[in-house]
Design goal:
Elements (H helix, E strand, L loop, with lengths): L1 H6 L18 H12 L14 H6 L51 H8 L7 E8 L43 E7 L4 E7 L4 H12 L7 E6 L13 H8 L2 E5 L11 H12 L7 H17 L14 H18 L26 H11 L4 E6 L1 H12 L3 E7 L12 H11 L2 H10 L13 E6 L11 H6 L3 E6 L14 H13 L4
Parallel strand pairs: 1-4, 4-5, 6-7, 7-8, 8-9
Antiparallel strand pairs: 1-2, 2-3
Helix pairs in contact: 7-8, 9-15, 12-13
Amino acid sequence: MHNFNDDGFDSLYPKYAGGRPRTFTLPERREIKKIAKSKPAEHGLPFSTWSLAQAGRLPGRRGCGRRHQPRGPAGPAPRGGRLVSTHKDLEDLPRSGLRRQEGPRRAPVRHRRRRGHTRGRRAGCGVLPGRVRPAELQPHPGRQWAERGGRHKDPDREPRRRRRATYNRPHGVRHLFAAYDLAKDKLYGHVKKTKNRSKFLEFCRYLRTLYQPTVRLAIVCDNYSPHLTTKRCRRVADWAEANNVEIAYTPTNSSWLNRIEAQFTALRYFTLDGTDPATHKEQGSMIRRYIIWRNRHADDRAPTRRRRQGKRCLMRQEFLDLVSALLARGLAVFAMDSPGQGVLAATTTFVPDYERIVGRVIDALGVARIGLVGLSLGGYFAARTAALEPLVAAVATVSGPFRLDWEELPPPVRDIIARRAGGADAAHEFVRHVDLTALAPRIATPLLVVDGDQDVIARVTNGEPLARLAPHGSYLSVPHGDHLLGNARPDWLPRLSDHIAHTLTGTSA
């Protein structure tokens, strides 16, 4: 109806544009299909099925699936979505008392696991041995791209090969001894005919040769009987004591705590699933080739995407919209989280003298002048930096504080500041520094302060005094805007972007 009111009967014949161009051209689509229907072994890759990342890395391909890796993450692989409780000590779980495990009582398993599963240990190296089920010579079910069957099948194509029967399996089984080095992100594996205490010690001796004798080695393994020290056989404990090695065991029925389990998932999926090896030699060769390839490509990390719920998700969207608006005006943009905020909240605390951090960024970027935009508490950081850093040529704040008073802050805001400042005393000291009364007159650059009248965080957002005291300050108040004005971006984002672009480049809005 709106179109008819504007254009009359011409609206009955809309002129649609062609839309965005295709991501892949027709020749590229044909090449993608050709790669998908081929086998990775035909391209020299030790896989039984494709991953999107590997298909995109082939010569002549571009941009196919940058999200997926051909191996699982290095983190623990809980079964059924179970997580390790941070409130209950894992030492309370039932241990392998029936197996008569001996040895001096050490620190709780939970704390030992945290120390052993941390990258870059200073006191030594952590190695995580593991085991998979015995490998038999039988067809392994899997999934892969294939030609369509049934009545849609190409009549000139041979029918699919049926899964062979394996009623008799006279070839025995093979066992994989594997270990995962946390510091180097390397996987080691040996295929053996049997799995007993002698073979386990043989594999441990091999692991010991990978490091200097003076380096203490921590080996984390499950309670499988060949790994244990009993009253009848103390070979494992004696060898560990004589070779500067500590062996730690996961709790009973909790082998999924071992981070090597995630590596086995990728090994089974990309190496064994969908295969039908004829001999154990062929199957062992497939496993060894995958381990070699995996260690060579251990540093190939796909870009990760973090998704946060609630308010922080709004902050990420706010950054994206602001960055897009500035890029559209021909500006180079560098976005960052200040200490104690965003993705840095878990590892850092608030820093009042934020101008030092901006100074380091300016030195690293090698630019002569910059513009600053601060959101929420970042507005205080941006205004403070503009007053103390001479290379700041333009500044803008969005829902930023002018001055904070601990007694007037709402309890939720106090809790957030205390948590991100590192404690109540540090929070009091930080809030005492958040005062722009003396710094506002020193802001010599053009300043734009944006506030929303419907801001739900009371007594925090108060930017009007900042714009009034600054020599070149201007104030924009959006009556229906909330905190960060995410509900009213068209009312302030274009003006803020034009303010930064005009000040830095001299172009008209």
